[in-house]
Design brief:
It is built from 12 helices and 12 strands. The protein has an 8-stranded mixed beta sheet, with helices on both faces. It has a 4-stranded antiparallel beta sheet with strand order 5-4-12-11, with no helix packed on it. It is flat, with a radius of gyration of 23 Å. Bound molecules: iron/sulfur cluster (2 copies).
């Protein structure tokens, strides 16, 4: 890694260099002051660097599109619709969201629509400098510094003597794609001392997190099937099926498909002409009542309690470790922030602890 590590005075230099080859996706404030991932091809726009800002949205929509056409049917044959993509750089993605992308890479490994976008994305990760509101990445091994093999480039701010005075940015090329992306940039080589400093800053930051040990305690109770049914029922009363949590969760990947018929000209009698259709995919939510309803009308998750239990089981069950090598929660805390019924991750895991410990 030392062979592919460099020093940079100003992160904007890297951003402007990459903007020559990639469409820039970065964190910006919207008109309401909300920080969001935004596709912005103008490199002069002031982006917010992720070491201080975990935006309310994750960048998942740039890989797993919220709505997209999959294929067309003309009455006789199906034709796949290949997504039109341009090379993009996701600049300054935090460790939790990068871990979520690595998770979704596994989930969508056979999905040509996701993969087409993924191949055309350069991931620039950024080490966080202080715990974010509700974030507990360290507890679920998703951060706060970028995990190995989750980004093409990693940038990490090094400070002098623990002060906030900017010294340098350490730039680490983790993949060949990352290394190629910085060709032509005049960069000095980093040394072992810079990695020692990075690790020291990581240790300091880890010590600044609140005590979130109740999360891992609750994970154990969940996997021991020790959570009583009445607790799921109690919590599910507060689920409004708004899908805020599943939309914002960077690892949630539920979707549905539906067909739309092409509008026929008024003078065409529809019985005599095959209807052309387009199949679309949209984000769905396992917390919607109809999500699991089958064609027969049978619904294995008709009760809200079943759906809430299933959601948390998906996030923290040991059953998925073989497939994904980690839990499905990366500790971003967005579900806690958004849930109007206050059954986000902290509320649920605290309640499980309280019930199961007593
Ligand atoms: S955000 Fe809360 S209320 Fe909305 S679907 Fe999720 S759990 Fe239910
Ligand atoms: S379950 Fe909540 S805390 Fe975990 S990754 Fe999803 S939104 Fe973030």
């Amino acid at each position: 890694m030392l062979n592919h590590s460099y020093l940079l005075k100003d992160l904007d230099i890297l951003k402007q260099h990459l903007a020559k080859f990639y469409s820039m996706v970065q964190i910006e404030k919207d008109a309401n002051g909300e920080e969001r991932w935004t596709d912005q091809s103008d490199p002069d726009t002031v982006g917010l660097f992720g070491h201080k800002h975990l935006p309310s949205t994750s960048p998942k929509g740039f890989l797993f599109a919220e709505k997209e056409a999959l294929y067309k049917f003309d009455g006789e044959t199906f034709e796949s619709i290949t997504p039109q993509v341009v090379p993009k750089v996701l600049f300054g993605v935090q460790a939790c969201d990068l871990t979520a992308i690595a998770y979704q890479d596994k989930f969508f490994k056979q999905d040509p629509y996701y993969q087409k976008r993924r191949e055309n994305i350069l991931l620039v990760g950024i080490d966080c400098e202080s715990p974010c509101t509700n974030g507990f990445c360290a507890e679920v091994k998703a951060g706060p510094h970028v995990n190995d093999n989750t980004a093409d480039l990693v940038v990490s701010r090094l400070t002098v003597n623990g002060s906030n005075q900017l010294a340098e940015w350490l730039v680490i090329a983790e993949t060949e794609k990352g290394q190629n992306s910085i060709k032509g940039l005049p960069l000095d080589k980093a040394h072992k001392a810079h990695f020692i400093l990075r690790n020291r800053l990581l240790d300091k930051m880890r010590s600044e997190f609140a005590d979130y040990s109740y999360i891992n305690n609750a994970i154990e109770y969940l996997n021991d099937n020790a959570v009583p049914q009445h607790l799921w029922e109690e919590m599910s009363v507060r689920c409004l099926s708004c899908s805020g949590c599943t939309n914002l969760c960077p690892t949630c990947s539920c979707y549905s498909t539906y067909e739309i018929a092409e509008k026929q000209p008024d003078n065409v009698i529809s019985e005599t002409k095959a209807v052309k259709t387009e199949t679309l995919r949209v984000w769905d939510s396992c917390l919607f009542e109809g999500f699991q309803r089958e064609a027969s009308g049978h619904n294995p998750a008709q009760q809200a309690a079943q759906r809430v239990e299933r959601f948390w089981f998906h996030k923290f069950s040991d059953e998925y470790l073989t497939e994904f090598q980690r839990y499905g929660c990366v500790g971003c805390g967005r579900c806690e922030q958004t849930c109007p019924g206050t059954i986000g991750v902290h509320s649920v895991m605290k309640r499980i602890n309280q019930e199961c410990c007593s």
